[in-house]
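Researcher: Structure prediction, please.
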Amino acid sequence: ALAGEVHAIATAPLNKEALHSAGHIYPGHTELLAQLTNTKNYAMVLYTDHLKVIHVTTHIALRKFLDTLNRPRIETVIGMADSFLRRVGFDKPRIAVAGVNPHAGENGLFGDEEITTVAPAIRAMKEKGIDVYGPCPPDTVFLQCQQGQYDMVVAMYHDQGHIPLKLLGFYDGVNITAGLPFIRTSADHGTAFDIAWTGKANSASMAISIKLAMQLA
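Model: Predicted structure follows.
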């Protein structure tokens, strides 16, 4: 892909425990591909026709998440969301940013991360011309996006973005790494070793990820 011989790659699910047991200490495909391509700014995108989510953080413990949350990273991901959507055909992307706390903090009542970190990042990116909204209450913003009010949601952490998307599109969801020098897609689920060779596994997401890689390329 780096040599230009292919325009996109579609990766199959990767078992993180097996990867680590073999001595390759990466949280997953995203970080591995970022290192192989010397990519500093990257983000995980989960993609369906009706809901698209990009993540500020992914494979990190929740206890560490709040300690590492910062305005520059949020600004970077908002910018990547705008660039990604334009790359795949959205002329005027509308981006919503989910809050961190219940009700997006309720003006500091349930936490002040929205006031101190998230809102300033949103204002900074608005000033750069990006059509971005928030901080939005996390319990409603994904439904609003699915209904067409926004084109993508910036999720703060792994499960905040993964749960709504997998609930609404488990079998047609695709995992995309934004920021790489080439298109990379993958199935949005794991290896499912527990049902390997039983004939029960559903391959729809893998097939769709291959088709989407072709489409985006």
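Model: The chain has one domain: 8-29+41-191+198-216.
Researcher: Thanks, that helps.
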